[in-house]
Amino acid sequence: MKLTKGIIWVLAVGLLCLPSAASAYNFFEAWPSNTDDGATAELVDPELAIDIHPIPYMDLWYSTEIDFTSAPPTGTHLTRISDGDLLSMYRCRIKTNFELCRRLGVMPMIPDLGLDAVTRPYWWPVPTPVAISDDEVVCPTPSAEVKPYCKCILFSIEERVFSETLGWIGHGDLLCDCGRIVRTNWELVRWFRPTCPACVCPVDCDCDASYISAECACCLCRDLGLDAVDEGVFGNYCTGFLFSTEVDFYSRRLEQWVGHGDLLSELGYIYRSNAQLMANFQPYDPLAPDDVLIADHDFGLDAVYVSKRGVIWFSVEEGFYDRTWGYISDGDVLSESGRVIYRNLDVVRRCYPLEDCANFGLDALERYPDWPYQIEPVEQMPIEIEPVAIGG
Fold first, then answer.
1. Which SS3 state, helix, strand or coil, does residue 299 take?
2. Cβ atoms within 10 A of the Cβ of 166, count?
3. pTM of whole model > 0.85?
4. Residue 303 and residue 18: Cα distance in Å, rounded?
5. 3-state secondary structure of 229
6. Strand locations in 220-337, DSSP E?
7. CA 308, CA 311: separation in Å to the nearest integer?
8. In CA terms, which of 71, 187, 315, 323 is 20 to 30 Å from 202?
9. Of 194, 302, 201, 295, which is closest to residue 250 (Cα–Cα)?
10. Among candidate residues 73, 75, 150, 144, the one with its CA nearest the CA of residue 119
11. Is 338 exposed, middle or buried (0-12, 13-18, 19+ CB in 10 A)?
12. In this structure, what DSSP letter does residue 107 have?
């Protein structure tokens, strides 16, 4: 008797649940499904359609200006982090300086060569700009031999060293961890035609370090340094590599001085001046009366990242006081929109530095992976919740 009643109850509950099961089936049927040709299938119930865009994992790669000791709370030993190591905002160290430079042929690999700039190219090998005329330089369209989605890491070092396979490597050369020189410093700045402003060269010579004629002895053939670099864009709307130098120089092509805080294109023009990068900030001198704004000052450009949509993140060489954000250090990640994206301690916190330091500096910057949609962290605002009486 009890068994019969149990069977009856199960059948009754099953009949009651049939409409709910049918609704659930219609709900999942209402989700769009992509066909082979990329079109969206017809919806059963358009009101239940939800458009979902997955966001890939984003990481920030960087290097610091000073060494520090990493002491993770779950670790059993301390790790020494060098200013030449490539670090991650979420995984701490990605590659040591030795792992980056071991294929360059530098013997011995002591001391640490440093890490001054870093980027990841989309195309490999990277196309080389071609001069159509004296005033026009273009990038060739990537050929079939050029492969996309390169896994190489491009970087610059802080010291001039000798390589047994590459010869002399300057601190302004753009290197690859595969053991190549992608661009020499002269190849990056040659289309600016750097020279002394008071000198008039009788011929338009290339100041190659291997040959300097007596007529062009005034040309700046020395290494101008490489403080920041970004892969830029190749193909349509080509910009070539975007970079900054460590010193100012005079450009005969532009007939003006180029600052060490300007973001330059290897095609021979200024992509963003330092004043344009700082236009949305309000730097002022706290010791001056009435907090007078600082104008016509080059704050430097120590690290840069340019998204596929042209949004620029960067760090400066000189810290300053801002009327909105307070003190901004040379280790903070800034946006040209006038915002502080990350404070320096937020960048290095996953490395758990043992030293009690407010700023470890920021020498290189790269976001990985890069995708077309620019998503910036939203400033956290306090939320006020009004108390609600319960039961009354």
1. coil
2. 17
3. no
4. 62
5. strand
6. 228-233, 240-244, 249-251, 256-258, 263-265, 269-272, 283-284, 303-306, 312-315, 320-322, 326-328, 333-335
7. 8
8. 187
9. 194
10. 150
11. middle
12. S
Q: φ and ψ at 5, to 5 degrees?
A: -65, -40
Report the alpha-carbon distance of residue 278 to residue 224 in Å, rounded: 23
DSSP assignment of 362-374 equals --EEEEES--SS-
Looking at the chain, the whole-number percentage of residues with pLDDT higher than 90 is: 48
- Residue 149 has which token pair? 């989605």
Closest CA to 363 of 219, 216, 211, 157: 157
* Structure confidence at residue 382 (pLDDT): 41
Strand ranges (E), 240-325: 240-244, 249-251, 256-258, 263-265, 269-272, 283-284, 303-306, 312-315, 320-322
pLDDT tens, residue by residue, 363-380? 999 987 764 433 344 343
Say how far apart CA 365 and CA 61 lie, in whole Å.
Answer: 6
Encoded tokens for 155: 């970087």
Contact status, residue 299 vs residue 278, Cβ threshold 8 Å: yes
Which two structure tokens, joined as six digits, stand for 334?
A: 């800034």
Structure tokens belonging to residue 211? 């040959």
Judge whether 132 and 138 are in contact, CB under 8 Å. Answer: yes
User: Are 152 and 181 within 8 A, CB to CB?
Assistant: no
Condensed to tens digits (0 to 9), the pLDDT of residues 57-77 reads 678 999 999 999 999 888 778
Residue with tokens 């910057």: 365
> How many angstroms separate the CA atoms of 235 and 143, rounded?
10
Q: 86 is written with which tokens?
A: 């490539």
- What is residue 14's three-state secondary structure? helix
| Residue 296 pLDDT | 87
**Half-sphere exposure of residue 277: CA atoms within 13 angstroms, side-chain side:** 31
Which residues of the chain have a pLDDT value below 50? 16, 18-41, 43-44, 202-204, 208-218, 371-386, 388, 390, 392
Query: How far apart (Å, rounded) are the C-alpha atoms in residues 165 and 185?
Result: 18
pLDDT (0 to 100) of residue 132: 77
Q: What's the confidence (pLDDT) of residue 169?
A: 94
